[in-house]
Design a protein that fits this description.
- The chain is α+β, with helices and mostly antiparallel strands and 149 residues long.
- It has one domain.
- It has three helices and four strands; from the N terminus they run H-E-H-E-E-E-H.
- It has helices at 3-29, 56-60, 111-148; strands spanning 45-51, 75-82, 88-91, 103-106.
Length: 149
């Protein structure tokens, strides 16, 4: 594994965690949304990560030997899926979104759980940013060693 592979792995993780935080923030913002354009309450979203198959740079230069394999550990957000948990029904007969029985369908979103997910995404982002800084420092120290040699 080369020095730049470490940067590629951390960069892919930074991007994936940023998207995870955005999806979690959207869930929290819509925790009380009872009516969407599609009809019905907002549906909670979840992210799915997969191993990255390789960057376009690596695909273009794949015949040059050292770029033939993507760095192990790269990650990407492969899709955002809807949560299948049924809506929470609350009795609110005066609400315009209430059904004939007086119940309103609310998203099945637990703000505490979403906050924990958001904190996890933020912490993972911070750790990967630290890894980028450590990689940059190692590259700089390698250059300094080569200067003195």
């Amino acid at each position: 594994m080369g020095l730049f592979d470490m940067l590629n792995i951390s960069a892919s993780a930074l991007s994936a965690e940023r998207l995870r935080a955005e999806v979690t923030s959207a869930n929290m913002a819509n925790a009380e949304t009872t009516h969407t354009d599609a009809g019905g309450p907002y549906v909670r979203k979840q992210v799915v990560f997969t191993a990255k198959s390789g960057s376009p740079f690596r695909t273009i230069f794949s015949g040059m030997g050292k770029f033939s394999q993507p760095p192990a550990g790269s990650v990407q957000l492969s899709q955002v899926v809807d949560d299948t948990t049924p809506s929470v029904m609350r009795y609110e007969p005066g609400n315009p979104d209430a059904n004939k029985a007086g119940y309103v369908a609310y998203p099945a979103i637990n703000p505490s759980s979403e906050m924990v997910d958001l904190m996890g995404a933020v912490r993972a982002y911070q750790l990967n940013a630290s890894a980028v800084n450590a990689s940059k420092q190692m590259i700089q120290e390698s250059i300094d060693i080569l200067k003195t040699a």
